[in-house]
Amino acid sequence: VAELIKDIVEFSPMRKLVTVRRTSQRQVQFPKRTGVFTASWVGEIESRSENTGLTFGLEDVPIHEQAAESYVSFANIDDSEFDLAALLRSEFAEQFGVAEGIALISGNGVKKPQGFLNAASTNSVNSGAATTVTADGIISLKYAVKTVYAQNGTYLLNRGTLEAIRKLKDGNGNWVWQPGLAVGRPNTLDGDPYVECPDMPALGAGNKSMAYGDWRRAMVLIDRMDISLLVDPYTRAGSGQMKYVARKRLGGQVVLPQAVAIMTCSA
Questions:
Q1: What is the average pLDDT score of the chain?
Q2: What is the pLDDT of residues 29-54, one digit of tens each?
Q3: Which of 180, 193, 194, 245 could serve as a FRET partner for 1 with CA atoms 20 to 30 Å apart?
Q4: For residue range 154-197, what is the model confidence (pLDDT) as tens digits?
Q5: Are 97 and 11 in contact (CB under 8 A)?
């Protein structure tokens, strides 16, 4: 049968949320303001003095590499009813996307991007309950970022956290939030859109289960090289196999921490 039965592979759509750039270098540097001065009030002919404090620095974003290998027998290639090489390319792309989504959320920065859950200086709030989420906690999360970032704010959470939020009720037994039903309007929490990210931590004591912010300003994803596929018919020929080697180079991290807030399950 020229059809393959496949389970759905879920991964976080971070690439659609953050700023994506391309480079031909091993590292990208973003100029960044690190300090500001304070303006002064003066009289008409009063002497002025220098306002110090305005400083600048660089935000370094290194490039990392993904790699994967797969061996397929020559007989399998001969006998397959569908394009096996095209299938492998699709599988490599899918699994690279899975790894990318995980890294942009919880990566530690070692040979991979640093995720926002591990970024320093991000805003943090408690959920209001030891192991779950509360309506007050969600509101606190939204107001933990400045107004200019909240204007383009989006919540990130996994499906289990969303289920818990959908079950929140007020004192009269009414659900606190409902998904938008109007055509063209996204589902919202407290008026702002949300995105399901399966790689976000589940609800539980001490878990960072929800985040909010202006992701395009907060994070950057740098593409150095798209997926490169090497087909090697020689190395494994003695065992009757074709070798496929895929690699991709990219980098990413938070460049503006104040544009993001993270909610931790805690009373």
A1: 92
A2: 999 999 999 999 999 999 989 999 99
A3: 245
A4: 999 999 999 999 999 888 888 887 665 555 666 788 889 999 99
A5: yes
Q: How many residues would you count in the chain?
A: 267
Cα–Cα nearest to 95, from 16, 195, 18, 11: 11
Of 259, 248, 249, 261, which is closest to residue 219 (Cα–Cα)? 259
For tokens 């003066």, name the residue.
Answer: 42
Structure tokens at 248: 């991709």
Which pLDDT does position 1 carry in this prediction? 60
95 by Cβ neighbours in 10 Å (0-12 / 13-18 / 19+) ranks as: middle
Q: How big is the chain by its Cα radius of gyration, in Å? A: 24
What is the Cα–Cα distance from 136 to 144, expressed in whole angstroms? 12
Using CA atoms, how far apart are residues 61 and 45, in angstroms rounded to an integer? 47
Q: Does the pTM of the predicted model rise above 0.70?
A: yes
CA–CA separation, 36 and 264 (whole Å)? 31
